[in-house]
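Blinded run. Sample ID left blank on purpose so nobody reads anything into the name before looking at the predicted structure. Input follows.
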Amino acid sequence: MRLIRRLWAVAKILFAVPLLVVVLFCVNGLWPSWKDPDAGTTSAAPAMGRVREVRVLALNVAKCGFHRGGTTFASKDEVRSSLDRIADVIKRSGADLVALTEIVKDAPPCDVDQVVYLAEKTGLHAWAFAENYSFGIPFVNIRAGNALLSRFPMQADRCEQLAGGKPFWNPTNNRRILWCTVTINGEKVAVASLRNDSFDLVNNAVQAREIVESLPDGPVIIAGDFNADPDTESMQTYRETRRLIGAFDGPGTFPAHDPKRRIDYVLGPRAWTLVEDSVLDDLVSDHRAVLAVFSLR
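Blinded prediction complete.
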């Protein structure tokens, strides 16, 4: 009888452990905390004086190569080396605002907070992050998504789910948009970092329409990986808003080693003047960075 009781106790443990993991996995995936972006500041002081121009950079960082496939991950040193190269590009660009996509906030297999690391390394004042997915269990999960870095004072507002959302257990291609408010010359500017659908152009167009239809009042900047070529319905939707200006055509941004497609953009307020839009030559990701310079009237 004693042996039977011991075997029964072991069986309950063997059943309870995987059940607990499944429950925690579901709790992590369904918890609505993703709606509230993470945010913070660095030791750098905010830019408070009046400026004549605003420089905005957009870059898909491709998770800085932290995942090698399967259960293989890059080392911390390798990820930091990639981040250092990206930080150098940002600093040389003189960017005031940086929209980063496919960036990793938490990843236990390679525990480097890519958002905070870049904010500190570039000397920008504020950072914000919104997850596209959180995969794992509480405190042992991989969170990746969109981020914004700002030289100006910045308030993280919200993260919004975009059309075509995937179940939490299948994070591939789930898309959300991060919205923040940045204060420039005393004026509130809504700034968004996004990465739209990369598999389905029809859904990409749906996402573009819902973004445009819900644009906040006042000046707006939208930057990131739109995953849409200039002649697509998606980009036509942004062109027709009369709220945004930008280089809807121009040099390719993807793939970085031989760019054939323009899918990364920086769009700014109609009241500003676009004086420069350039695709940078630096190969620090599988996308090339886009730098837009706006003159403020």
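Unblinding after everyone has recorded impressions. Residues 161 and 176 are 4 Å apart (CA to CA).
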